[in-house]
Amino acid sequence: DAGVTQSPTHLIKTRGQQVTLRCSPKSGHDTVSWYQQALGQGPQFIFQYYEEEERQRGNFPDRFSGHQFPNYSSELNVNALLLGDSALYLCASSLGGINEKLFFGSGTQLSVL
Amino acid sequence: GNSVTQMEGPVTLSEEAFLTINCTYTATGYPSLFWYVQYPGEGLQLLLKATKADDKGSNKGFEATYRKETTSFHLEKGSVQVSDSAVYFCALSLTGGGNKLTFGTGTQLKVEL
């Protein structure tokens, strides 16, 4: 049973570019949440998708957007990259959005130069 | 707003020593409390949780008790092993919050022989 998988594992971009990160949830899970973890910090909630809609959003600008597909996989898009967007981006999946046990992927390490 | 404060690391202990990692929280409402662990190169894993005051969460020899009067959820283990070396995150979620987690900044634990 595959857990949460994220791709790519590492990514290097330059300021102003756009990036797309991908996440496949754990089998049977229908809810995907995205978190940003800056170096030495705890993860910060970006948003959560359920039934292909954004259900909750944290305190992130509109440059951060997402999508959920019918197979429950999800993408995180970041436009107009800033140096401060360099971080580990974590995807977490759960069932129904009310189950408090989240399963996390290993993350995508994004470096913005 | 909601927040979690953890003791700063790194915490360095000898094998078989007693571990305490302090965690306090501020929340509107009645949160559930969690400890997550992040091993090098891996995603976060749920270590234990408690959903109401005076509950004790436990797993793999780790324990934490939900103390509403002191708004605390300190992590303890009686005898640490080298394999416990990791970063530990305290987190909360609010009832009805759709399992959105608010994390502390993490505490790195290093256990030496």
List the quaternary state of the chains: heterodimer
- Major sheet summary line of chain A: 7 strands, mixed
* Largest contact between chains: A-B, 26 and 25 residues
Indicate the mean pLDDT of chain A. 93
Q: Which percent range describes the beta-strand content of chain A?
A: over 45%
Spatial shape of chain B: globular
Low-confidence stretches of chain B: none
Helix/strand-derived category of chain A reads mainly beta
Our estimate of the beta-strand percent of chain B is over 45%
Cα distance, first to last residue of chain B?
A: 41 Å
How much helix, percentage-wise, in residues of chain B? under 10%
Structural class of chain B: mainly beta
SSE run of chain A: EEEEEEEEEEE
> How far is the N terminus from the C terminus of chain A?
37 Å
What integer value in Å does the Rg of chain A equal?
Answer: 13 Å
Q: What string gives the helices and strands of chain B in order?
A: EEEEEEEEEEEE
Give a count of the beta strands of chain B, DSSP E runs of length 2 or more. Answer: 12
Characterization of the model:
The complex is a heterodimer of chains A (113) and B (113). With 113 residues, chain A is mostly beta strands. Helix content of chain A is 0%, strand content 50%. Chain A is built from no helices and eleven strands. Chain A has strands spanning 5-7, 10-13, 19-24, 31-37, 44-50, 53-57, 64-68, 74-78, 87-94, 103-104, 108-112. In chain A, strands 2, 4, 5, 6, 9, 10 and 11 form a seven-stranded mixed β-sheet that branches. The termini of chain A are far apart. The mean pLDDT of chain A is 93. Chain B is an all-beta fold and 113 residues long. Chain B is 0% helix and 51% strand. Chain B has strands spanning 3-6, 11-14, 19-21, 23-26, 31-38, 44-50, 56-59, 62-65, 75-77, 86-94, 102-103, 107-112. In chain B, the strands form three sheets. In chain B, strands 2, 5, 6, 10, 11 and 12 form a six-stranded mixed β-sheet that branches. Chain B has a four-stranded antiparallel β-sheet with strand order 3-9-8-7, with no helix packed on it. Chain B has a two-stranded antiparallel ribbon with strand order 1-4. Chain A binds chain B through residues 4, 33, 35, 40-45, 48, 55-56, 58, 90, 92, 94, 97-102, 104-107, and chain B through 4, 32, 34, 36, 41-46, 49, 51, 89, 91, 93, 97-106.
